[in-house]
Amino acid sequence: MLDSIHVGTSGLMGHQQALRVIANNTANMNTPGYKSTTLGFADLFYANAAGSGANGLRLGHGLGTTGTRLSFSQGELRQTGGDFDLAVEGEGLFMLRDAQGQVRYTRAGAFEFDGDGVFVNRSDGSKVLGVDASGRVGEIQLEGLRVAAGKATSNLRLAGNLSSTSTEFTVGGMKVFDGLGQEHTLSLKLTSTEATKPGSWQAELLEGTTSFGAVEIVFENGYPDAASRSLTFDYTPAGRPAQPLVLELGADVSSFAAGNLSTLAMSKQDGYAPGNLTKVGFDATGALVATYGNGQTAKGPRLALGRFTTLDAVEELGNSQFAEANGIRWQQGLAGDAGFGTVRAGSLEMSNVDLSREFTELVVMQRGYQAASQVISTANDMLQELFGMRHK
Length: 392
Known about the structure:
- This is Flagellar hook protein FlgE.
- Residues 6-35 form the Flagellar basal body rod protein N-terminal domain.
- It comes from Ramlibacter cellulosilyticus.
- Belongs to the flagella basal body rod proteins family.
- The chain is an alpha+beta fold.
- The chain folds into 3 domains: 2-73 and 352-391, no CATH class; 81-147 and 277-349, no CATH class; 155-269, Tick-borne Encephalitis virus Glycoprotein, domain 1.
- It has helices at residues 2-27, 355-391, and strands at residues 37-43, 46-48, 58-60, 63-70, 77-79, 85-89, 93-97, 103-106, 109-113, 119-121, 127-131, 137-139, 147-148, 155-161, 168-177, 183-192, 200-207, 210-220, 223-224, 230-235, 243-254, 265-269, 275-282, 287-292, 297-307, 314-318, 321-324, 331-334, 342-345, 347-349.
- Strands 7, 8, 11, 12, 13, 23, 24, 25, 26, 27 and 28 form an 11-stranded antiparallel β-sheet that branches.
- The longest helix has 37 residues, at 355-391.
């Protein structure tokens, strides 16, 4: 009967541990990136009963536990609207570097840029790791991305109709940029040379009264001929190096009779002024995307992701973080790589705890605990009865 009390006690301890696992799961049902665990049970060793012989009665020694097992099933991806709240759709985990330089992994992508412009984990300040264009793994920083340099204009496109009955027309307000991003306003003075060559015009590029050369445009059947589709000028802004400008007369340029009304104008150009950083975000490949006030965008490092091939390689650390275990190295990759998944910005992965399953397990473990306690109570009553018989 003392053995029965020991067996019952092992049942109490095993179900008590299971209850603690269930309690931890339910307590973290709203914890981003939390992965639920289950406790495994196994019966303890068996031995022959005293005096029963080699093939006689074999009795077990109670309940043992085989450890907890993680479930890495995908949790719900809940939209938060935060630009730096990130979730992974797939098997990848974000990589972090803590204050001691150790690499950690997490599915809880609640991140932010700190005061130094470094991308960090919001809960503990550990650095989020990324991969730059050269393949080097390191911190993700805004350094070098706060300002976008301007671009000198090299190509302009015209569109509209140049009235064939006019003798002169000026395309004004052509805004271009030099190599430092400074804006200049040019004009294209068009003078008909119909008298010497049918359908021909002289095109002179001006900035104010300064001329940068003149070229000939010839229209055939109302459209520029092949030689007139691209006009090249050597433009030299004041105090700046020369920059070639190509004026393209595309399919939208024509020269038909329209009285003195001409609609020819610049439709677009490829230069832009410098711009300050206005917004930062991440795309589905985990790449940092910087947006600037001049309408330009630039891509920075991509988020580094880790992936394990066996649960034996995973150690739970708390704070929804994990580490390599048992000397088994994790695979490293990027969002979009096979097996790593994609990144969804503006969302967080919530806990994968199945509350209905946990409540079911709770009832089962409660019944097991009650049964084990009943065994102990019964064995105790039998011992009391035995002691009472001795006194009689």
